[in-house]
Design brief:
The protein is mainly beta. It is 11% helix and 56% strand. The chain is built from 1 helix and 5 strands. Strands 1-2-3-4-5 form a 5-stranded antiparallel beta sheet, covered by helices on one side. It is elongated, with a radius of gyration of 17 Å.
C-alpha cells in the first residue's frame, strides 16, 4: 500500500495545502522526498478512559508545530519528524 501511495506521490511535483478544522498542513513533494509542516491547535479532554475521572481536571489546549521529511530510495524508507508544543 505504501509503495502504491509513494508512486502516486512521485508523479506529483508541487505543494499541497490542507485546512481540516483547526490545523493547517503544507507538503512539498518532489521525486523521492516529501517535506511537510503542520500547525494546529490540539485539545485533550480529561474524560479519557485511561485517566481517573476527576472534576478538578481541566482540558489541555496547546498549539503544536510539526516539521517532517520523508525519503524513499530502493525500498528503504526513512522518516524524521520534529515536534514543538
Amino acid at each position: 500500500m505504501l509503495r502504491k501511495f509513494r508512486k502516486l506521490l512521485s508523479a506529483i511535483i508541487g505543494i499541497i495545502i490542507c485546512c481540516p478544522g483547526r490545523m493547517i498542513t503544507i507538503a512539498c513533494i518532489g521525486g523521492n522526498m516529501m517535506l511537510s509542516g503542520i500547525v494546529g491547535r490540539y485539545t485533550q479532554l480529561p474524560e479519557n478512559y485511561c485517566l481517573v475521572r476527576r472534576s478538578q481536571l481541566m482540558s489541555e489546549v496547546c498549539m503544536q508545530y510539526n516539521w517532517g521529511v520523508q525519503y524513499d530510495n530502493e525500498g528503504r524508507f526513512c522518516k524524521a519528524e520534529l515536534y514543538y508544543l
